[in-house]
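Troubleshooting entry. Yesterday's outputs looked truncated, so today I'm pasting the complete records for two proteins to confirm everything comes through intact. If either block looks cut off, that's the bug. Protein one:
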Amino acid sequence: MIGNGNTMESAKALLEEMLDNDAYLPARAVIEAGEDIGISRWSMMKAKQRFGVESCHEGFGPGSRWFWHWPDARYRVRNT
């Protein structure tokens, strides 16, 4: 269950809920969703690393964005 108990387990549940196998989701959206339920930015970053979520960067300069995805995801941006 998200938001209850262990922080890493809550973060894992959130990652599993938000990231489907086909999509790359803006990292900011995932981190903010964690913060909304009481999981710190640091904990979300640690969970990303611990549970094997990958990231990629799109663009350059002020309009660039980071995306999070599972390793086997095909590139398809899911807007939030």
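Protein two, checking that the full record survives here as well:
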Amino acid sequence: MTAPPTTMTDRPGDARAAFRLPQRSPARRWLAIGQRLALAVVGGYFLSAAGVTWGALLLSGVMPRSEAVVLMAMLGFVLYLVVLIWAFAEQRLLRLWLVLGLIPTIGHLLTHLPG
């Protein structure tokens, strides 16, 4: 004879069991947190720098260049903050690597093309 379940999550067929995250070792959790933090800080910086550069280039066609640069520099802080918050809200670490690794790289490469 088995003991009755003590909590709701111990019951067989519990619908919430499908939504629980898999248990990882503490070392793997700390590694994931370290990657997320590094991606948020470094990748967010480069993403906001690329966004400021491209935004200033695009806005310089409709407003004076100096005003476009100042406007995008101020909006860059907001963009950086949004990226930092998103980096810790996003559940998939692979998506962070793709977005915060590839987009800034492509943006900077396109900015420094000759011509």
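Both blocks look complete. Sanity check on protein two: The chain has three helices and no strands.
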